[in-house]
Design a protein that fits this description.
Residues about 1-20 have low confidence and may be disordered. It is globular, with a radius of gyration of 20 Å. The chain folds into two domains: about 15-105 and about 275-390, Beta-lactamase; about 115-215, Up-down Bundle (Methane Monooxygenase Hydroxylase, Chain G, domain 1), CATH 1.20.58.710. By secondary structure, it is α+β, with helices and mostly antiparallel strands. It is built from 13 helices and 17 strands. About 55% of the residues are buried. The two termini are about 25 Å apart.
Length: about 400
């Protein structure tokens, strides 16, 4: 098994944060080995059969500083394309397929939103961004958001009323894309929950305006580098798991089989760096991200947020994070579990009540997207919840 150790020193509010995140037996983590064996087996089930849930999948789960499960199954690259006439993938020769490993990078899709949210809360902690400030105060040229008094809090909680997305991928150039965003007004009553990629795109522009730095630099300097997340970055990422043979009519752009470039069409149109999508990462790196938040914002000698601001981030309804959502958290939901899913097949859940975390990375869109099914995400999370109760 690849090394899962990330060196860190003494620091942080909890003693756990001073420990090295390391692989260990379930008993060391206070988890039931039988349930974790079911969890690991689930990953193999998800990648087998005539129509598997995903071509490849990786799960990393643990409690405290102990990674008790690190399992990979299936293929990072299995198909050369998709055949719409037979509704099947065009298989690569066996010698050309690439197996998934624990250290395979995946396109995180909307898990990117969590990093944008942390970057925003960092600025709130520093006093450079106001939680209830109007977006128009920072971006007066975004006239529609300014006229409707959209606030930073509404962006972070998906209550701005903005529609889920805009066809930025159809715009001829960056000028047209920016004009479309600036003119976009809420189409639902502000204050009502309505999940929207546009919230994190506007937040990206706010962060870049107040700091004078692009989002990829903010995330690298403020989150991934301090935490030692060396496998987490915006693309291109040549070694990543493949995603989709992206073509109309099932997709919004004609780009062919994608690997190492962002899957989301709008993030692609924006150059691969976007507040809602674009990051690539590995399961061990995301375990560090989870561990830092569970330990009050610290991992070893690094602190990316103060404990009070981590609490602000994760308190219902959550800032960027979804809280207590059984549809993908299974039985971990109910006492303050937080996390997110990504369209490509990714998800993470961290549960402060039990000090547990679960990262599931998969390429469910390889060779092409299908109706989303989060039952496997919920099932793996439920195995982890039962491992705590059965220990």
């Amino acid at each position: 098994m690849p090394s899962l150790e990330h060196t860190c020193g003494v620091g942080g509010r909890r003693q756990l944060s001073a420990s090295r995140l390391r692989a260990g037996p379930p008993e060391r983590a206070g988890l039931d080995p039988a349930e974790l064996e079911h969890l690991a087996g689930e990953v193999h089930t998800l990648t087998t059969g005539a129509r598997p849930w995903a071509a490849g999948a990786v799960v990393v789960a643990g409690r405290g500083p102990v990674i008790a499960v690190a399992e990979a199954a299936g293929w990072a690259v299995r198909h050369a394309g998709y055949d719409p006439e037979t509704d099947t993938g065009v298989e690569l020769p066996p010698a050309d397929r690439i197996p998934a490993t624990v250290d395979t990078p995946f396109d995180l899709a909307s898990l990117t939103k969590l990093f944008t949210a942390v970057a925003a809360v960092q600025q709130i902690e520093r006093g450079t961004l106001g939680m209830d400030a109007r977006v128009g105060a920072y971006l007066p040229e975004f006239t529609a958001a300014a006229e409707h008094d959209v606030t930073v809090r509404q962006l972070l909680t998906h209550t701005s009323g903005l529609r889920p997305e805009l066809p930025l991928y159809d715009c001829p150039d960056d000028t047209a894309r920016l004009a479309l965003l600036r003119a976009e007004a809420p189409t639902a009553e502000p204050g009502t929950y309505r999940y929207s990629d546009l919230n994190m795109l506007l937040l990206q522009y706010v962060l870049e305006r107040i700091t004078g730095r692009p989002l990829d630099v903010l995330i690298e300097d403020g989150i991934t580098r301090p935490l030692g997340m060396t496998s987490t970055a915006f693309g291109p990422c040549p070694g990543a798991a493949a995603t989709e043979d992206q073509r109309p009519p099932w997709a919004k752009a004609d780009r062919g089989m994608l690997r190492g470039v962002v899957h989301d069409e709008n993030a692609w149109a924006l150059g691969g760096v976007a507040g809602h999508a674009g990051l690539f990462s590995t399961a061990p790196d995301l375990a560090v991200f989870c561990r830092a938040l569970l330990a009050g914002g610290a991992y070893g000698p690094a602190r990316v947020l103060g404990p009070d601001f981590v609490e602000l981030l994760l308190t219902p309804p959550g800032l960027g994070f979804a809280v207590d959502q059984p549809w993908f958290m299974g039985e971990l939901a109910g006492r303050g579990a937080a996390g997110h899913t990504g369209f490509t097949g990714t998800s993470l859940v961290l549960d402060p009540a039990t000090d547990t975390f679960l990262v599931l990375l998969a390429n469910t869109v390889h060779p092409r997207r299908r109706p989303p099914d989060s039952r496997p995400r919920a099932a793996t999370a439920t195995h982890l919840a039962r491992a705590v109760r059965g220990a």
